[in-house]
């Protein structure tokens, strides 16, 4: 005999969520919200728990969508287990999701990214599974390289090779820098993440403190406006305790959404996430409505051009310092940028070639979309 559902708080919430998102997505998001409420909501206080196990976040972020929806009996059991405080939090969370279009990650306040747990809050860009996927793949590539170089040094009776110096442009929440810092072989790299946004830098610093125990490599963050003339940037791009730094690689998830694509984005993106992290705007601009249409980049590639110029200015397209011979840097990408599809991939490859990176490669994401372009100097 079915259980009485007259006092089930969750069913009306599921109906409300379904009207806004569709039935399947609503069931999936309710599952995630319930799990978060049971784990982290108590006495009106939400506390983020540290995660030290290795679970690829792009898998967890996608697999929960494929889990079977809860049955009516399971929903009833969830309802019976939730406290009144947890139910009140769920009601507010679903109101925020359906009425204010608040992204789910902002409601929950965190997003898994490789080994790290990234705190998220508006308006800083939410880490996407696509970005995490290539970050983990890049870490595997670098680890294979550095392990080989280290073995070569050992055979020759040399000391450990110096760490790679990696510059992460447009760091946002710091997820890429921290992802690399946690995945790369301990002591094999140093990463400096830079951004122009004060909100982003504060969040990146919070995430650095939150994930410190997971990091085997040095990570720092700094405020730098990369849209300045590139010849002014090298002296600003350095670790805090050094007069200057020689760079081996630039990685970035830069703004690459075109103005026309931005107009078609869902409200939970347009109304919540910083447009500067999505659309390449002219320097000093925060509102595309104030920019003459002729000054907006219809291709979304202007920031990639700036990064290619910066790579050349920093000597990544052709540098061969004496001590770097043993590091065999020609087998590592010097510039790694996320893009959005085949057309942008082709443009990014040409941009890199035009700025001295004479070999390029494209990585697809799990959905089969061209997602990352890597530029080499060989």
From TrEMBL:
Q: Which domain of life is it from?
A: Eukaryota
> GO:BP terms for this protein?
methylation
Q: Transferase among the record's keywords? A: yes
Q: Name one GO cellular component term.
A: mitochondrion
Write out the biased-composition intervals (Basic and acidic residues): 63-78
- Any keyword DNA repair? no
InterPro entries assigned to the protein according to its UniProt record, in alphabetical order: DNA_methylase_N6_adenine_CS, HemK-like, N5-glutamine_MTase, SAM-dependent_MTases_sf
Q: One GO molecular-function annotation for this sequence?
A: nucleic acid binding
Q: Where is this region: Disordered?
A: 47-78
Coiled-coil residues are none
UniProt keyword annotations, A-Z: Methyltransferase, S-adenosyl-L-methionine, Transferase
Protein name, entry field: Uncharacterized protein
The organism is Coemansia spiralis
